[in-house]
Amino acid sequence: MVSGTALVYDDEMTRHKLLWEDPICAIEIPERLSSCYENLKRYNLVERCLFVPVREGTEDEIMLVHSPDYLEVVKNTQKMTEEELRKTSTNYDAVFFHLTTYRCAKLAVGATLELVDAVMSGTTRNGMALVRPPGHHSQRNAANGFCVFNNVAIAAKYAQRKYGVQRILIVDWDVHHGQGIQYIFEEDPSVLYFSWHRFEHQQYWPSLRESDYDAVGQGKGAGSNINVPWNKVGMKNSDYLAVFLHVLLPMAFEFDPELVVVSAGYDSGIGDPEGQMSATPECFAHLTHFLMHLAKGKLCVVLEGGYHLRSLSESVCMTIKTLLGDPLPSLSGEMVPCLSALESMHNVRAAHKLYWKCLLYEDLTPLKDLSTKSCQLGQGEAVQTGTTLVNQQESGKTNRDEAAKTDEFLEQHMKEILSLEPPVRTVVAEGNGDSLPPSVQNEKNVDTEELKAVVRGFAADLVKEENVLNALVNMLAILEKIVKKKVTSGLVVSPEASLSSALALKHCHDLRLQKILCIFAGDMDMKIDSDDGKVLLINIGNKPSEQPNTKYNISLNWKEDAERSTFFSALLGFVLPVAYSYQPDLTVIAVGSNQTLGTTGIALLVSLLQGLAQCRILAVIQDTEAQLLEDIAKPMMGDMTPCFGTCSPALQKNIQMVKELREQLQQEWKMLRCSV
Ligand code: X5A
Ligand code: ZN
C-alpha cells in the first residue's frame, strides 16, 4: 500500500505579477500562493506532507502541448521592457506578462510534473502542487485567462509518455471552463475531461458556444468531454455534490482511470468575486474524498484559480487534509439541489447517454432548455441560505464588503466544523480479530457493570449465553468511544449481529444522537421502528422485503446476484444521495450472512460512507462473515479499496428497481433528483 501526500511548492512562483493597471487581471496576485502556504503551516499540514522541490519544465515538456512558436513568444518576454510586456499581453485575452513570467510558468509546469512523478513512481499516493501562473485556459498557440502554459494538460501527456498511462481523468472544478484542456483532448478518448463552470447561457467569460453541455468531444473522443454549465450563480454544496454523484462519478467509475488529475480552482468556492458561488471549504474535502476512490488513489491536485484569499486558503487546506486521510467534516447546508443545477444535470446526462453504459437505461427525454425566466426560483431556490453573501454587485466598495463578510463567516464556520471533527482516524475492534491491520486498536474484555446493566435492560432473556453478553458489552464500549469522539470508527464481530445492531441503535438514542443511518447488507432479522426519523434504515439484501418502502425504511433488493455496475448505480445514484440528504450523526453498518456486495463492494461502501457523520462508523459483523473484518477495517483506516475494473452494463431489471425507488422517494430525499 502506497501512502503519503506530496506537497510541491516554491515561493519563487510569487514573483510573477501585474505591473500596470488592469481591473480584469488585478485579482491574480502573488498572495494567492503565499496565503495558501501560510494557512497550511497554521494547520500544521506542511510537516505532514512529503515536501517535493520544484524544477523547471523543459522545452520538450512544454512542447508536448504548445507550439514552438508560442514557446518562443513566451521566452522572449524575459528580456522585454515594461512597455513591450504590456504590448505582448494585449495580444491575448485576460493575460499579463512580467519579466519573471517565463521562469514562473516553467516552474509551474515542472512542479506539476514532479507531482506526477511522485505519484506515478509510488513515492506518494497523492499530492498537491501549489502553482502560479495557472494553466487550464492556455492553448497550443495562446495564453489566456491568466494562464501561460497548460500545466495539467502537459501533465496528462507526460504521464502517457513516461508511464504509459492508458486512461487519465481530468477533473476541473475551477469555476471557469478550462477550454484549453478541452481543445487539447477533444478527440482523445484516453483522456476524460470533466469541467463545471459558470456559464449563464453563454453570457459569462469566456462566453464560448463550446462550453455548453452538448460539447461531448469529437471523433474518437466523442463522450470523453463532459461540460456542466452553471446557468446561475450561487451554486452551493448540494449542487456540487449532486453533479458528482449523478454525473461525474458514474462515468468516472465506468471509465476506470489509471490516474486522476484535478484542475483545482477555488474560484468555485464561497466569497470568490469571479465565481459568485456558495460552496464552503469542506465541500472540497468531499470532492477530494470521492476522487480518492478512483485510480487506486493516484490523485494529483494542481492549483488553478481562486481569488478570495481566505476562501482559497481554507479550501486548499481542506483538500490537503483529505488527501492526508483526515476525517472529513460533514457537508453543511441544505441538501437540496436547485432547479437550474438539475436542468444542467439533466442536459449533460442526456447529451452523454449514447456514450456511457451507466446512462443506458436512464429515461432521458429530449434535451430540455427551459428559458432563464421559467427556471428562476423554484422551491428552496431563493434561499441561498447561510449567507447573504452572494449578490452580484458591481461597485468596488460592495465587493470589499462582501469579501470581508465572507472572511468573518469563514472564521466562524471553520472553527465550528473543525471542532466537531474527531482529530484522527482511529479504528477500534472488538475481541479476537487476528487478521486485523496492526494499526487497529483492540478492545478486549471490557468489564463494566454499567454496560452489562444496559444489555440486561435491553433483552434480559436473550443474553443468558456468556459469549453473546460479552459481544454486546464490547459493542457498547466501542460505540461509546465513537460517540465521545475518542475514535472515529469501530468494528464488532457478533454471534447475533441483528441483536447487536438493534441494541446499538437503542443505545444511540439513549446517548442522544439525533439521526442514525443504518445500513444492512445480507440476511438480517430486524424489526426496527424508524418512523420518527431517528433511524434511517437502508437494507441492501437479497430477500424481497415484506413491507413497502417508506421514507425511513428502505429495501434495495437485487433480483439476482448483483453485478458491480448495479452496485455502483445503487450506491452513487441512491444510497449516497439519501445518506447525504439525511445528514446522520452516526452510521451503523450491519453485515449478515449471504451478503452479495463482495469484499470490494463492502469496502467501497464503507469507504464512501465516511463522508457522512464526520467519519463516524460502527460496523457490526455476523461471526460467520468474520473474514470480512480486514476488508472493512482497511477503508476505515483510510486505505483505498482495490481497483474495480471497468463495468459491464447492469441488468436492466436491477437498474429499473433502483430507478423506481429513486422516483418514489425523491420528494423525501432531495439529493436523489437529477432531473427537472
Ligand atoms: C485561472 C482562472 C480566470 C480568468 C478570468 C478572466 N482564470 N476574466 O481562474
Ligand atoms: Zn478560474
Describe what is shown at a glance.
With 676 residues, the chain is α/β, with parallel strands linked by helices.
Structure description:
This protein is an alpha/beta fold. It has two domains: 5-420, Histone deacetylase domain (Arginase, Chain A), CATH 3.40.800; 432-672, Histone deacetylase domain (Arginase, Chain A, 3-Layer(aba) Sandwich), CATH 3.40.800. Helix content is 37%, strand content 12%. It has an eight-stranded parallel sheet with strand order 2-1-3-8-7-4-5-6, with helices on both faces. N-(4-aminobutyl)acetamide is lined by residues 24, 94, 134, 137, 145-147, 174, 176, 205, 265, 267, 274, 304-305. One of its GO terms (cellular component) is nucleus.
Layout: helices, strands, pairs:
Blueprint: E1 5-8, H1 31-42, E2 50-52, H2 59-62, H3 68-76, H4 82-89, H5 101-120, E3 126-129, H6 151-163, E4 168-172, H7 179-185, E5 191-198, E6 225-230, H8 237-255, E7 259-264, H9 281-291, E8 299-303, H10 309-323, H11 339-352, H12 396-420, E9 427-430, E10 441-443, H13 449-459, H14 466-483, E11 489-494, H15 497-510, E12 516-521, E13 535-541, E14 553-557, H16 564-582, E15 586-591, H17 598-609, E16 617-622, H18 629-636, H19 652-665
Parallel strand pairs: 1-2, 1-3, 3-8, 4-5, 4-7, 5-6, 7-8, 9-10, 9-11, 11-16, 12-13, 12-15, 13-14, 15-16
Helix pairs in contact: 1-10, 5-6, 8-9, 8-11, 8-16, 9-10, 13-14, 14-15, 16-17, 16-19, 17-18
Residues 174-176, 265, 267, 304-305 line the site of zinc ion.
GO molecular function, one term: deacetylase activity
Keywords: Hydrolase, Nucleus
Subcellular location: Nucleus
